[in-house]
Amino acid sequence: MHPQLLKFTLPGLGVVEFPTYMTLLVVGFAFGIWQLYREGLKLGVDAQRFIDLGLWMLVWGILGSRLLAVVADGKLHDFVNLCVDSRLVPVDPHEPESRIVECVTREGGCGDFFKCNPATGRCYPPTDCLAALKFWQGGLAYYGGFLAAAAFGLWYARRHKLGVMRTADAASPYIALGLYFGRMGCFFNGCCFGQRSDSALAVLFPTKPDGPRLPMQLAEAIGALGIFVLLLAWRRRRREHGEVFAGLMVTYGVLRFVLEFWRDDPRGAVAGLSTSQLISLPLVAWGAWRLWESRARGRARDAAPPSSSAAPPPSSESAPSTPDAPATPAS
User: Fold this and answer.
1) pLDDT band, residue 254 (cuts 50/70/90)
2) pTM score, two decimals?
3) Domain locations in the chain?
4) What phi and psi values does residue 197 have, to the nearest 5 degrees?
5) Contacts for 140 with CB less than 8 Å, ≥ 6 apart
6) Which of 140, 176, 143, 152 is nearest to 278 (CA)?
């Protein structure tokens, strides 16, 4: 683990810190926005719109990922208690700052930040009604960010006549690449870890002192990088707009659903499936339906008489900037 990428002191500013997770996340988004701008130039649309789209997707992505983390990761009750009665929120014993000991018998047993509840002898955090909004303290769920950013992106593309599915296809590979940077950040941050394992591939995370664990962050990062390469190639061979976006839904949805069986960080679960698995199912179903529908239309066009006036939609990256054919939104 290496949660702090850079830390140095500047005259007049004091200590400057670059957390590894947030730094890699920003790098991934910045690269994706730059590539979206280049795609806009190729498509013949207002490329500045693609820059605005990327920046707004960053904002909505953070909001959505934080919202899902708060609601679905099993800590909503703790966030409420942090505002109402923080004595009901014991400090996680695996946190470096925690002091879950008989704090009533030890002065300063809870450290300088936490407080001691004499009735239970357990430490608890101070009252904080804004804790749910402090995403920089940890707690972001990728799927929440993806759904929020994708919904906004589709709306933005339609409003500004960029071509909804064409824009989605242009962005899809860089969404996967951004996930690669994000999961590498998770690995260095020590979150999103896997189950306890004695495998040679297991890694010891300081936040989980019970033994080595599977590095599922690295597995997902490698998978996301593979999806990025696949989608870049797919864009050159697609027959309809929307196929690449649908391919992202299917490939990442399947990857995430499978990897979740080896994840072991605390998250919500229903009927034995994690929140991420429950979200993956409809996304995979929609993507598979969209691909099947696209292929069916392609076969129909191939079977049409040569004199037919129907023409297939453009498949090259230099497609004209007219709106796409009607398409079903992702969410």
Assistant:
1) very high
2) 0.80
3) 22-80+132-303, 90-124
4) -155, 150
5) 62, 65, 66, 69
6) 143
